[in-house]
Specification:
By secondary structure, the protein is of the alpha+beta class. 29% of the residues lie in helices and 26% in strands. It has a single domain (16-211), classed as Inorganic Pyrophosphatase. It is built from 5 helices and 10 strands.
Length: 227
């Protein structure tokens, strides 16, 4: 938004990673991604959705280390439209969205040492993941201009072992040994066209829930300035 009050606010305060940073002008072909976890983390970090700060969600109790950068796509939400698409493609019924921002894995050859950063990612596909009846898609992307992965434009161009490693992580990272069947499943690994659809549906779900947020804040800012 090219508004003097918003520009001033952006100079004084850090933007909320979910609400205050745009998806990107070139979406869904290129996205802004907020990274919460890097492969060296032994603690699961997660964005606190109220404060906008990164928090410790839980220590990893077992040897599940995320094999890629992992985070969320700003101004997205997995709600009705994402769940409808998941049902359409998987043949499952009675799914709902998980009401969280869309998750994203970003592959890069670089060792990025910490999260709480933004980067530009190129989506190439995703996993259609169902967790306890909730649609919980994971977008697979590559870091823009990455020397190893930057040329990829579809999940089929990635090394199969890399995709398998990501899939194994998401199927096991919540599983406690000896406690029976896992709670989640991945019904499909899809390519770029379906990834684009999931991204735009999640953005539409976000806009439906938070469509008045920017207007409300603008009114409040102008009221404060006029007062």
């Amino acid at each position: 938004m090219n508004d003097p009050l918003w520009n001033l606010l952006g100079m004084l305060y850090q933007s909320h990673p979910w609400h205050g940073v745009p998806l990107g002008d070139d979406a869904p072909d290129q996205l802004t991604a907020y990274i919460e976890i890097v492969p060296t983390d032994t603690v699961k970090y997660e964005l606190d959705k109220h404060s906008g700060h990164l928090k410790v969600d839980r220590p990893q109790g077992f040897s599940n280390i995320c094999p890629s950068l992992y985070g969320l796509v700003p101004q997205t939400l997995c709600a009705d439209r994402v769940a409808e698409y998941s049902m359409e493609k998987s043949g499952m019924t009675e799914l709902v969205g998980d009401d969280d921002p869309l998750d994203i894995c970003v592959l890069t050859e670089k060792d990025i040492s910490h999260g709480n950063i933004f980067l530009q990612a190129i989506p190439v596909g995703g996993f259609r993941m169902i967790d306890k009846g909730e649609a919980d898609d994971k977008i697979i992307a590559v870091l823009k201009d990455d020397a190893t992965y930057g040329h990829c434009r579809d999940v089929s161009e990635l090394p199969p072992r890399i995709v398998q490693r990501l899939k194994h992580y998401f199927l096991t990272y919540k599983q406690v040994p000896g406690e029976g069947e896992r709670s989640c499943e991945i019904t499909d690994t899809y390519g770029i066209e379906e990834a684009r659809e999931v991204i735009m549906r999640s953005h539409a779900d976000y806009n439906e829930l938070f469509s008045g947020l920017e207007d409300l804040l603008t009114q409040m800012l102008r009221g404060s300035a006029d007062g």
